[in-house]
C-alpha cells in the first residue's frame, strides 16, 4: 500500500515537470485554500477545482504520449491534442460558473 502511494506521488512529480500542469496545479491549490476561507463545508467549490486538475492531467498525459510517438505533424495527433485541450477548457468553464455562482450568492446574502 505504501509503495502504491509512493508511485502515485512519483506520477505527480512527473506531471509537475510540465509547465502547463504546474500552473494549473498551483492555481487550483490556491483556489482550494481560498475555498476554505469562503465556505469550509461547501463542496461545490472543491469539485470543480479537482475536475480541472484531473482534466489537465489527462491533457498532459495525451500531450506527452503523442510527443513521445513523434514530433512530425500528424492530423490525428493534432485532433487528439485539441480534444484533450477542449476537455480542460470545459473543466475551466465549469469551475468559473461554480465559483461565480457561490461567490455571487455569498455577496447577495
Description of the molecule:
The protein has 109 residues and is mostly helical. It has a single domain (2-108), classed as Orthogonal Bundle (Helix Hairpins), CATH 1.10.287.3610. Helix content is 84%, strand content 0%. It has helices at 2-15, 19-38, 46-69, 75-108. The chain starts with a helix and ends with a helix. The model has no long low-confidence stretch (mean pLDDT 91).
CATH topology: Helix Hairpins
Total DSSP helices: 4
CATH class: Mainly Alpha
User: Describe the biggest sheet?
Assistant: none
- N- to C-terminal separation? 46 Å
Oligomer: single chain
Helix fraction by DSSP (H/I, runs of at least 4): over 70%
Question: Proportion of β residues?
Answer: under 5%
Looking at the overall shape, the CATH architecture is: Orthogonal Bundle
Mean pLDDT, all residues: 91
Structural category is: mainly alpha
- What integer value in Å does the Rg equal? 17 Å
SSE string: HHHH
What would you say about this model in short?
By secondary structure, this protein is mostly helical.
Give the key terms.
4 helices; 109 residues; mainly alpha; Helix Hairpins
Amino acid at each position: 500500500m505504501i509503495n502504491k502511494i509512493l508511485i502515485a506521488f512519483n506520477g505527480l512529480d512527473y506531471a509537475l515537470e510540465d509547465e502547463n500542469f504546474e500552473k494549473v496545479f498551483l492555481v487550483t491549490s490556491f483556489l482550494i485554500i481560498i475555498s476554505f476561507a469562503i465556505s469550509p463545508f461547501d463542496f461545490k467549490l472543491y469539485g470543480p477545482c479537482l475536475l480541472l486538475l484531473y482534466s489537465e492531467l489527462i491533457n498532459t498525459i495525451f500531450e506527452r504520449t503523442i510527443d513521445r510517438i513523434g514530433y512530425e505533424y500528424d492530423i490525428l495527433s493534432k485532433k487528439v491534442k485539441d480534444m484533450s485541450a477542449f476537455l480542460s477548457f470545459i473543466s475551466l468553464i465549469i469551475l468559473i460558473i461554480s465559483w461565480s455562482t457561490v461567490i455571487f450568492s455569498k455577496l447577495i446574502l
